[in-house]
Amino acid sequence: MNKTERQSALARIINQKPIGTQEELLSELKRAGIDATQATISRDIREMRIVKAQDATGSVRYTLFRGDSESQLERLANSVREVGLSITRVEFLNVIKTLPSNGNLLAAILDEIKFPQVVGTVAGHDTIVVISPDVDSAIWFNAQYQRAFTD
Predict the structure, then answer these.
(1) Distance of CA 3 to the CA centre of its chain
(2) What domains does the chain contain, in order, with CATH numbers?
(3) What is the pLDDT along the chain (151 residues), one digit of tens a residue?
(4) pTM tops 0.70
């Protein structure tokens, strides 16, 4: 099976079933006749921009991160207002607290925008660490994030 076929099956599975772990994903792929390793699935998840998000029932599951018609900055502002709780700057880092199960989704949006003032993000269940190249960049990012609350 080639990469395109595997990733197509992966997308189909996560759109049809609530999958919350890579183990569940590997099991569903195997059930579909696709043998893959955990490392391969991890790469696919990264390439396909698959993130964990809370669904309507409150369960955390994999979902495809999709862009839509709203601009990236509008999407960030809307997401910050919906799931952002606080931001704290510590030197060249910003620590963002979110509602439970929303850290990965908000970090994916930040990564998609590719701010030059952001080197990268590390996301967890309800916390994101935003790494900037220097203190001035971190101050700028913090101001942009705060502005999203008031727009």
Answers:
(1) 22
(2) 3-64 (1.10.10.10), 72-150 (3.30.1360.40)
(3) 688 888 888 888 988 888 889 999 999 999 999 999 999 998 888 888 788 877 767 778 888 766 554 566 777 788 888 889 999 999 999 999 999 988 888 888 888 888 889 999 999 989 999 999 999 999 999 998 888 777 6
(4) no
Q: Please, are residues 132 and 141 in contact by the beta-carbon 8 Å criterion?
A: yes
φ/ψ (deg, to 5) at 98: -125, 170
Give the 3-state secondary structure percentages of the chain, helix then strand then coil, rounded to 5: 50, 20, 30
CB 129 within 8 A of CB 122: yes
Can you tell me the distance from the alpha carbon of 48 to that of 65, in angstroms, rounded to the nearest whole number?
8
DSSP codes, 8-53: HHHHHHHHHS---SHHHHHHHHHHTT----HHHHHHHHHHTTEEEE
Q: Which amino acid is at 118?
A: V
Which 3 state secondary structure label does DSSP give 88?
strand
State how far the Cα of 36 lies from the Cα of 107, in Å rounded to an integer: 27
* Residue-level pLDDT at 69: 42
The neighbouring-strand residues paired with 87 are: 96
- Please, are residues 90 and 127 in contact by the beta-carbon 8 Å criterion? no
